[in-house]
Amino acid sequence: MTVHGRDLGLLALRLGVGGTLVAHGAQKLFGVFGGGGLEGTAGAMHAMGFRPGKQNAVLAGLSETGGGVLLALGLATPVGGAASAAAMSAAATVHAPNGFFATSGGYEYPAVLGLASTALAVSGPGRYSLDAALGGRLTRPWLAAVALSAAAAGAAWTIRQRQQAVAAERNVDEVAEQVQA
After folding, report:
1. Structural domain containing residue 110
2. 51, 161 contact by CB (below 8 A)
3. With a threshold of 0.70, does the pTM exceed it?
């Protein structure tokens, strides 16, 4: 067996991005690594405008954990990459008002994770993966397009729901201020 640099690079990228996503998802779902667990994350999601908070916490945690595991293993890579990219898209919109750089609370970090997840969904996992061991059965050429399209639609819907909730709360706050004035 010959070692191929491209495949080693994809393995390293999958392990790094996938492992990071698993850790973030585990914070949300299980409260490990200093995370809030499901209840704490549900409260945070609600405060950020995601309704219902608990359902969105579960979806975000599963997308990150499940997508990260699939990416790290190189198993159903288009699906894992798409799920992770969708979660990072929603996260990026929360941080967008703070600009690009993470040092200012911006969307840099979720954007990079989402972009890397998308790139892996499109490129495939390389030969050092479970997908390769299975003969590419879970990485058919059409699967990346379908998975990314479905993930984009789900992310767009979630983002729109959040924007509507945030706008409604802003309107309630404005009316309350006018009543007090």
Report:
1. 5-180
2. yes
3. yes
Cβ atoms within 10 Å, residue 6: 10
Q: Rg of the Cα trace of the chain?
A: 18
Cα dihedral sign, 15-18-21-23: negative
Q: Tell how far CA 30 is from the center of its chain.
A: 17
Q: Give the C-alpha separation, 35 to 29, whole Å.
A: 8
Q: 70 with 77: CB under 8 angstroms?
A: yes
User: At 142, which helix (H) or strand (E)?
Assistant: helix 141-180
Domain count for the chain: 1
- Note down pLDDT in tens along the chain; length 181 residues: 567 999 999 999 999 999 999 999 999 999 999 999 999 999 999 999 999 999 999 999 999 999 999 999 999 999 999 999 999 999 999 999 999 999 999 999 999 999 999 999 999 999 999 999 999 999 998 999 999 999 999 999 999 999 999 999 988 888 878 888 7
Report the distance separating Cα 7 and Cα 172, nearest Å: 53
Q: Are 72 and 18 in contact (CB under 8 A)?
A: yes
